[in-house]
UniProtKB/TrEMBL annotation:
This is TonB-dependent receptor. InterPro entries: Beta-barrel_TonB, Beta-barrel_TonB_sf, Plug_dom, TonB-dep_rcpt-like. Keywords: Cell outer membrane, Ion transport, Iron, Iron transport, Membrane, Receptor, Signal, TonB box, Transmembrane, Transmembrane beta strand, Transport. The keyword Lipoprotein does not apply.
């Protein structure tokens, strides 16, 4: 046995040789600095009371120190979330390297999560994304629910790479885990009030403590946010995007006896957004009108004059826009019960959860007559019902052999319906359509993880999971479109009442039979990971990791060319080397990782203009797949340089490439996009977050700032030679100043987000020949605010 242990240790030493050289160099620097630092600490210098907080995580379903977990993780603490105005789930991208979540300015939209190049640009929300989102260990499977406010949190954990064994819903890109502050038996809480630009108002509070000593504890948390918006709707003379977001979380912790405890939680949310700006550069005149287009993106001439959209041909986030009455309302509720039962040295955990949502939306016409620029109207409703159950049995962690086994079940039902109309002048129709979606998904899995400690330095972790997933979908579609010699077969009583009973007249709807199609998929997959570790010293951990993950196949949420488009399961293998180090008595933490992804059947949303000669219309999107590779390096540093100066920084470098990327759109193709870079994936990303504390007898002044840099990205997987569909590299920063009471019982904060007022689109869709326009959406402009927080 000793011989085998020595052989294994030797192999691991060779694997980590390159990383060990870096470690040795850093160690030498630390040794040179340590005597002076120790002397300074003894003399009561700036190093007094210096040290980074000890961070604990549950990335491997156990409570462990961050630096002891052999996978790349970034953690954002609850205090940072509260004090740095990280108010929404998508804002976490500010403090986590390589992560982006563009596309959810309205707070009810579907975020476009990307991590290390893995993400989805697909507008279809019925697909599970490759990056899994969890709240208190419960997956948020429906992507439309993944943008939500953050309040009263303990921390957020960002896990890079596939989490194909321990986490409930399989994924290829990683996982983000939002962990709420849980009830305790000590009374505590806080209250925060804030006001800011564009009519922003925030009220947030939490209070918890013992209900019955050592037996029952509770915690209540509330969050309310209102905002008027920054862009003017000329038609309604109102600002947008408007937001009204009301949230509550109520938890009860019960200790039934020394061996059994349970945490019950209910989270509820009512959110409404409206007046969301929409910009389409260019537009197509109506058939038969006297409106002609001078050039794509240029002015529309009408009756010898000209019509130019209020934002011209270069809109920005604060540009005026035309929009009719609209709203997007959502009601969401989550119920969960987590029970821990101590069976001697072992722990049996059960997590049961039910997530419900109901949505309604309406968008009425709000543009001038005789143009088709955004001249559409739509109404929709939808609901989702998700149930999850997880059981796991865990052995003690402090033994040479530790393990975890479990079972998981997931069920999601989605129902949506929509109607839309596109108008000519008055109430005659250019197009009318109805569609509905009913999708039912289940996932069942058995999983386990074993870690064996060969010596004090050498250990090996192995994980495995077997998953069976099924999906069934029924799509119904009805479309009545103008054709030669059969114009205006559908009429509307009036433009803004077409969706009401009796609002549609004519033979179009009655004369067009709805098309209804169904499809089913079953996927079985075995995923695994192997993670050898070598501890060079108490403060330096090296690891290698081979991990697999998969994302189940699915269906487009609309019928295309008379068929349901299906996607195959996406598979990814991650080869990774990592090093976690801590120096200078815990004042400096530096972690690095080198990784390579090999991906098969990468699910993509394809956008390319193609003329469908059978209907004489253009098709611009369809589902497709490709192989691909991503190779990258990440380095993160967290340092308490002095007692008063804290700095954290990270650097991400990667290269991505689509391979074997051929596809068809409608009856067109095959087209080939092999060699293109992954969309929404910067080659270089950088993050800097720092603050400095000035100490006074009456309190503390804390000045802080955080900045991110992202190099150029492509919005499109297939079209990468159109500058309009690219976003150049940019820096984006936020600044804040906080006055804090000596006992930290209260504080006042002034902040400016997007301080340089960076103006860029987070979405620039492909040029649409049907409307001769480039639809675009924008991130928020510069905002400022004042916040007061009281802790008790």
């Amino acid at each position: 046995m000793k011989f085998k242990e020595k052989a294994l240790a030797g192999e691991l030493k060779r694997v980590f040789s390159a990383l060990a050289l870096c470690s040795a160099a850093a160690h030498a620097v630390a040794q040179d600095a340590a005597p002076g630092a120790a002397a300074a600490a003894g003399a009561g210098s700036d190093y007094e009371e210096v040290g980074l907080s000890v961070v604990k995580v549950t990335a491997q379903k156990r409570e462990e120190l961050l630096q002891d977990v052999p996978i790349p993780i970034n953690v954002v603490g609850g205090d940072a979330i509260r004090d740095k105005q990280i108010s929404a789930s998508t804002d976490v991208e500010r403090l986590a390297p390589g992560l982006s979540a563009q596309g959810a300015t309205s707070r009810t939209g579907k975020p476009r999560w990307f991590l290390r190049g893995i993400g989805t640009n697909d507008p279809n929300s019925n697909h599970e994304g490759p990056l899994a989102i969890y709240v208190d260990e419960v997956v948020v499977g429906y992507q439309s629910l993944q943008s939500f406010p953050l309040f009263d949190l303990d921390r957020v954990e960002v896990l890079q790479g596939p989490q194909g064994t321990l986490w409930g819903k399989n994924n290829t890109g990683g996982a983000i885990h939002f962990i709420s502050k849980q009830p305790g038996f000590r009374t505590d809480g806080y209250a925060k009030l804030g006001v800011g630009s564009y009519g922003s108002r925030i009220a947030e509070a939490a209070f918890g403590g013992a209900i019955r000593e050592d037996v029952l504890a509770g915690r209540a948390s509330v969050y309310v946010e209102k905002r008027d918006g920054w862009a003017k709707n000329i038609l309604l003379d109102e600002k947008g995007p408007r937001l009204d977001d009301v949230n509550g979380r109520f938890q009860v912790l019960a200790r039934f006896n020394d061996n059994v405890d349970a945490l019950f939680s209910w989270t509820t949310r009512n959110v409404e957004t409206n007046n969301v700006p929409s910009y389409a550069v260019g537009g197509l005149p109506n058939p038969g009108s006297d409106v002609t287009l001078t050039a794509p993106g240029g002015a529309l001439t009408q009756g010898g004059g000209s019509y130019v959209p209020p934002y011209g041909d270069d809109p920005g986030p604060k540009s005026d826009f035309f929009g009719g009455e609209d709203y997007n309302r959502s009601k969401r509720d989550s119920l969960s019960a987590r029970i821990n039962w101590q069976l001697g040295d072992y722990t049996l955990t059960s997590i049961t959860a039910l997530n419900l949502s109901d949505d309604k939306s309406l968008s009425l016409v709000g543009v001038p007559l005789d143009t088709t620029l955004n001249r559409t109207s739509s109404r929709g409703d939808g609901s989702s019902r998700q149930f999850t159950q997880e059981l796991r049995l865990t052995s003690p962690k402090d033994r040479d052999l530790s393990w975890l086994v479990g079972a998981y079940y997931y069920r999601l039902q989605i129902d949506t319906g929509s109607r839309s109309a596109r108008f000519q002048s008055g109430t005659t129709r250019e197009q009318y359509s109805e569609s509905s979606l009913d999708q039912f998904s289940t996932s069942a899995a058995l999983f386990g993880n074993v870690n064996y400690k060969f010596t004090d330095k050498v250990s090996l972790g192995v994980g495995a999971r077997y998953t069976r997933e099924t999906k069934e979908i029924t799509l119904t579609s009805l479309t009545a479109t103008d054709t030669a010699g059969n114009a205006n077969i559908v009429n509307f009583v009036n433009q803004n009442g077409w969706f009401l009973p009796g609002g549609v007249t004519g033979s179009g709807v009655a004369g067009v039979a709805p098309l209804s199609l169904s499809a089913k998929q079953e996927n079985h997959r075995f995923t695994w990971d192997v993670t050898p570790q070598y501890r060079f010293s108490d403060n330096v951990l090296g690891y290698a990791r081979i991990a697999t993950g998969f994302r189940s196949g699915g269906f487009n949420q609309s019928i295309s060319n008379g068929q349901i488009i299906e996607t195959s399961p996406e598979r990814l293998i991650d080869y990774e080397l990592g090093l976690k180090t801590s120096w200078l008595d815990g004042r400096l933490v530096a972690n690095g990782a080198l990784y390579h992804y090999d991906i098969k059947d990468l699910q993509l949303n394809i956008q390319r203009a193609y003329l469908n000669t059978s209907t004489n219309t253009y098709t611009t999107s369809a589902a497709g797949s490709s192989d691909g590779t991503v190779t990258g390096f990440e380095l993160s540093v967290d340092a308490q340089a002095t007692r008063d100066w804290h700095v954290a920084a990270s650097l991400g470098l990667l290269r991505s490439e689509y391979k074997n990327f051929t596809y068809n759109i409608g009856s067109g193709g095959p087209f080939d996009a092999s060699g293109n870079e992954f969309y929404r994936t910067p080659r270089t990303s950088f993050r800097l977050d720092t603050d400095y504390t000035f100490r006074f007898a009456s309190g503390r002044l804390i000045l802080g700032t955080d900045w991110t840099y992202r190099s150029k990205i492509y919005f499109n997987a297939t079209v990468q030679d159109d500058p309009v569909q690219e976003l150049p590299g940019y820096w984006k920063g936020n600044v804040r100043a906080t006055w804090q009471a000596p006992n930290r019982a209260w504080q006042l904060t002034a902040f400016v987000n997007n301080v340089t007022d960076v103006d860029h689109a987070f979405l620039r869709q492909i040029y649409n020949p049907n409307t001769r326009s480039y639809p675009a959406s924008f991130d928020a402009p510069r905002t400022w605010g004042l916040q007061a927080t009281v802790k008790f």
